[in-house]
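Entry 14. Two folds queued back to back today. First construct below, sequence then C-alpha cells.
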Amino acid sequence: MSKHLDRTEYILQSLHSGKTFPDTGWILDAPDEDKPGLIRALYSKKQLQLKGDEYGIYKFADWLPVHRFLEGSCPPVTYKSEGLAGALGLNNLYVTFSGWWPEKNAFMKTCSFKETEAYSVCARLEPRDEHVLVVASAGNTARSFARVCSDNNIKLLLCVPEDNLNALWFDEPIKSHVKLVASRTGSDYFDAIHLSNIAVEMNKFISEGGAKNVARRDGMGTTVLSAVTTIGEIPDYYFQAVGSGTGAIAAWEANLRLMEDGRFGKKKMKLMVSQNLPFQPLYDAWQLKSRGLLPLEDGKARKQVESIIAKVLSNRRPPYSLAGGLYDALVDTNGEVLIADNQQAEKAGKLFEETEGIDIHPAAAIATASLIEAIEKKMVDRNALIMLNITGGGEKRFMHDKKLFYLKPSVIFDIDPDKEFVKQKMIELF
C-alpha cells in the first residue's frame, strides 16, 4: 500500500481562553497565556471518514494531528462481549481491546494502548526534525515509544524508574538511536519525569509533552472512535483505569467530536475512571469535588506506589486541575472516580481471562474490577450500553509465543541527581 497520507487539516484551541491558532510546530501550550490549560485540535472534517484497516491506527487520520504515516501500527479492536457480559448479567457490554490477540485481529506488539499515543505523537513530528524526543514513563509508554521510534528511525531518550525496567521487553532488539536512562531503585514515575525535565532544558531535546500534546490525547481517543464506529452509537458509560487521566480526557474529547459528527447520537458517556487502592489522589480530590489535588507527601506517595499492582497508574502530577483537564471532563460527563484494591484486580483479571479467553494488564483488571463493583452496587443499569476500555492485554500470550529482548539503561541516576552531571551524560548518549 502507499505510505502517503495527506496532512490532516486542523487548528488548535486554548481551553482556557477559547482562542484558536495554527499549529506552527511542536506546540504544547497556548501562546501568550500564563494560566494552566490544555490545547485541543479542531479538525476541518467534522464527519469522520474511516480509511481501510491496512492503514492501522491511521484509519482514523481525519481526527489525528499527523503529518505522515508510520509503519507497524494497529488500531484498537471493539467487540460485543458474551463471556464477561454473561458472567455479570450485562446485555450491552462492549470491550475495546488494545493488545496482542491475533484471533481478534489485535496485533499491538507492545500489548498496550500506549501504542495509539506513540504512533500519533511520532507522526506529528515533522520528518526533518532533528531533535531527540524525550519520554518519561512508568513502563508501557516507554515500551511503545521505543518500538515505534526504533522501527521508524526517530531519535528517542526514555526516562524510566529502575524498578520498572522489566516492562521494557520486545520481540526484536531496539535500534541504537533509542536510548534509556533510569532513576535508581526506590524512585517512581515522578522521579523519571524529573530526569526528562532536565533533558528538555537543552536545545537538542524536545519533550513529548504528556497530556499537553494533542497528538497523545487524540491517539488515545481512537479507542472511543473504534467503539462508536463499531457499535454505531455513543455508549452510556465508559470504564477505564487511570494514572494521569489523560486517556479519560481523550475519551471525552472524542465523544464531543462524535456528537458534532451527528451520526452516532448526542450522548455524553459517563466517565467511570478508577484507581488502584491505596494510591488514589484523583479519587480523594473527586470525593470532595475539589478542582485542586490534595497534598500528598513524597515519601508516603512512593510507599503507596510500591504497594499497588498496577504500577502504570502511579502519576503524582496528573493533568487534573487545569482547564480542559480531568476535573472538567468528570464535571461535564457527570463522571465518577472509583477505586479497587490489588485483590479485586487479580480476581477481575482472572474472571476476564476465564470468560473472554485472553490475559489482561493489571490496569485493565482495575477497570474491570470497578465495572464489577459498579454493577453490584447498582450504579449502572444492566441494560446500559457500556464500553470497557481494556488498555492492555495478551502480554502472557505474546511472551509465550516470542523470544524476548530487553532494553538496558545506559545510565542509572540517583533519586536526587546533580543536574549538570545528568545533562552531561544525556548529551554524551547522542
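Second construct, same run, same settings:
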Amino acid sequence: MSIKVSFRNIQKTVTLGLLLGALGLVFVPTTASAKPFNLGPGKCKECHKAEFEVWEKTKHATSYKKVHKSKAAKKIVKAVGGKRMKKTALCMSCHYTQTVKKAGAKPKLAAGVSCESCHGSASEWITIHNNYGKGKTVKTEDDAHKAERIKSATAAGMIWPSALYDIAVNCNSCHGFSKQALTGANISAMMDAKHPINPDFEIVAYSQGTVRHRFYPPKVTENQVMSTVDMSRLYVIGQAATLVSATENISKSDHAVYKAAQEKRIATATAVLKSVQSLAPEVGAFLATPTTVNGRAFAAAIAAKDLSSAVSGRLPSKFK
C-alpha cells in the first residue's frame, strides 16, 4: 500500500500536501459534475508504467480473479445478504475497483484494489494532474505552475502520495473496518462468518513491501527504499490514522472479536504516539482529541521531524 498516481513529484510536494490538510481545507471540484468516479488503473498506466507493473503483481491486483471463488468468501457474502461477491456493494467497496466511462454511465468492475482506491477517484482531477503548462512536460514545468497544479488537483479530490495521513486513512477504511456503510449488523455477520480482521495492520509493513512503488526523481527508474527517518514518520502518522479509525468505529458493534481488535489497535497506537511525545509535543493535543482534522494537523507538524530515535525499534523487520 504505498501507492500510485503521481510518484514523480519532488519532496517539496510533501510539505504542501500536508500543510493543506493541516489547514483543514476541504476542496470541492469546480465543475458541476456528478459524484467523482473511477477511471481504472489503465489510465494511470499511461504515464506511470513502472508503478503499474509493480501493482499488477500484488495481491491487491491478482485477488480480482480469485478471491470471490473461495468457500470462505462465499460464506461471508451470504452472511451479509449477498449472492455474489462481485455484485455485493459492501464487498465491492473494499475488494474491487468499479469504473465508469463517463458521468451517468453504468459502473462495472475493472480491477481489484488499485490506484484510485488510495488516491481518490480520478474523474475530476486527472486532467489537472496531467497539465504541466503549455509546451511543458513533467521535467520542464515551472515551479509556480506545479504548485498551482498540486493545489488544484487536491481541490478536485486527488490524494497525493505526500499526503501521508490521508493515504493511511484510506488504508484504514478497509483494513480497519471503518467504511461508513459498514453497519453493526454487517460487522457481526462478517465476524460470525470468520471474515479476517487484523488488529496488527500497520501501514509501513504493507506499503514498503510488495506494493512499494517509489519512483522519485532523480532516480525515476529505481523503486527506491524509504529511509529509516521517513519510515519512522510514516509509522507514527499511520498510527495516528489508526487511532482515529478505531476510536470512531469501536462503538459500531459489540461483537467480541471486533471489539477486541479495535481495543488492541487503540492501545498500540496510543503507546506509539506517547513514545514520540518528547520529540513531538504536538502529539498531546491529538491524543486529547483524536479526529481526522487533528490527525492532519499532527501529520503536518511532524513533516520535517526525525522520530527514528523513538520508534525505529518498532519498525517491522519484514514487509508484506
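Quick look at the second one. Strands lie at 97-99, 108-111. The chain is about 50% helix and 0% strand.
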